[in-house]
Amino acid sequence: MADYRALEALLTRIDGAGYGAYKRLQGTWAFPDFTLHVEHVQGDPFAAPSRLRVSVPQEVARFPADLFSNKPRRIALEDFLVRKLAMEIPRCTKGSRGSGHSGEFSVVDFGQCILPRTAVAVSEEKVEAVISCGLPAAGRRILGRQAREMLLSELPELVRRALFYRNLDPQAVRRHVECGEDAEALRAQLYERDLVAFVAEGAILPRASGVSDRPLRTGAIPFVPPESLAVTLERPNGGPIRGMGIPTGVTLIVGGGYHGKSTLLSALAQGVYNHIPGDGREYVVTRREAVVIRAEDGRFVCGVDISPFISNLPNGTDTHRFTSQNASGSTSQAANIIEALEVGAKVLLVDEDTSATNFMIRDERMQALVSKDKEPITPFIDRVRQLYQELGVSTVLVMGGSGDYFEVADTVIMMDAYRPRDVTEEAKRIARKLGHPRKQEGGERFGHFLPRVVDLASIQPRTRKGRLKVQGSRMALRLGNYTIDLSRVHQFAEVGQVRAVGYLLAWLAEQGHKLGTDGPVGEVLSALERKLEEEGLVSFLPARYGDLAQPRRFEIAIALNRLRTLRLRDGSL
Ligand code: ADP
Ligand code: MG
After folding, report:
1. Ligand 2: distance of its center to the CA of 317 in Å?
2. What domains appear along the chain, each with residue ranges and CATH number?
3. How confident is the model over 489-497, as a mean pLDDT?
4. Taking the complete model, does pTM exceed 0.85, yes or no?
């Protein structure tokens, strides 16, 4: 293996040469404290930056074994190190020098969640990190001196500061790791205690702004659990913790406008992921199988059996295999529910703000005026209990606008100036006082819906020239020649998950047969998720990319279902 002195000599030699000479950096270079793998060299200074992987042996990095002794701890430690790298880059590197991205180091973008990512990997043998680097040039002429400065002085300094345990704040590392492990343990207790979610006393739910996921710093009112819903769970590190437990079943969140209903629901939606210490929601946990459901008019729908909610459309469309290039508010919301159930959703999170009214309610007066045989929609209110009783699927629903739901709710929580109150008894009393119960429509049973078998070959991840193309943003995933609209999808925690979904779909298209199942989409995604848990995201990638974060199977399904080339295998489409 060539060493850093050879790298230095090479950079001196190619100073002033054309940019293409940088390709000679590709390969492995031994440094005194670590190994540098130059995995990808960019084609020009304006292209996506070059990819470096540094590998520090544990004899040098010296992380105490208990910081990564189980999976939640290891993931939290790796998360800490990504953040540390991002923090140290501006401190120990000079940044932009030359054309395009010249001189810049960077790591993956991240948010408030602790997620499994490809950027850092800690094992008993070594600590590895993937770092992007804009190899410097003036125009297309190599700036050899600047490259030497970057790779031989700044990079080693960055590695020392961020990846050597002795240079970290030991308390901060420990707090991070313990926080991740505690959240994981809290979530596990939800299942034992028949809860769908837990919100700790003192949690800070509101965010700094509509475009920032950081906590609101001034004027945030800490969460206080109502006495009747208070439970105490155990944390392996932090000890017992008290908070509000949301039971399984149908839970209604009511209250006046601007009293914090949607903020609570959003916190529950994010509670499927763990959060960093100081986020305010680090002890707000929701079952992993919780999915946000909303209306999404205009979306593509491929052969979904929405008949439990919608049947007898006036144009005679078969709703057992509903397909639309341009679904309506109610049909899109129905499809969103069935697709979530298809891949194993056990908790539906629904907000009136983002729902189709005619999908949610159909009140007595409307029942009297428009008879059921003229209304294709069986509203959610008539299905929400059946979902729980027949399929074991709980719902948490924000509904400030209709009291009809009082009758079907098990728990009613009122947000009152950001403080929750348990008003279940009051709501039930009011429902009873009105005398006759609401006329239930749409039959006694939710029944079965037709499973879909997806033709994986209809996922087309390559461009017409045959190049694999995956580009992600918070709003969209670009796969091959097609764009998947994600602008109204809520549970991607960061853009790295979007890109990861792109590679996972590409893998499904080309190697999905290796999963050994050609059954319904739920089975395929369960098998994919199992492989993901066992072998990690890296095993699905064509190269060691550093900018990916692990999604849930629900996010994979969400992208798949919105891909307009999608076809079913049973020949029905
Ligand atoms: P609703 O859905 O009941 O209409 P929102 O959840 O949208 O209300 O909250 C309204 C506003 O109050 C938002 O700007 C939100 O950030 C803020 N807010 C929510 N919860 C709190 C809290 N606990 N403390 C302070 N402000 C809050
Ligand atoms: Mg709201």
Report:
1. 34
2. 2-168 (no CATH), 185-450 (3.40.50), 456-561 (no CATH)
3. 96
4. yes
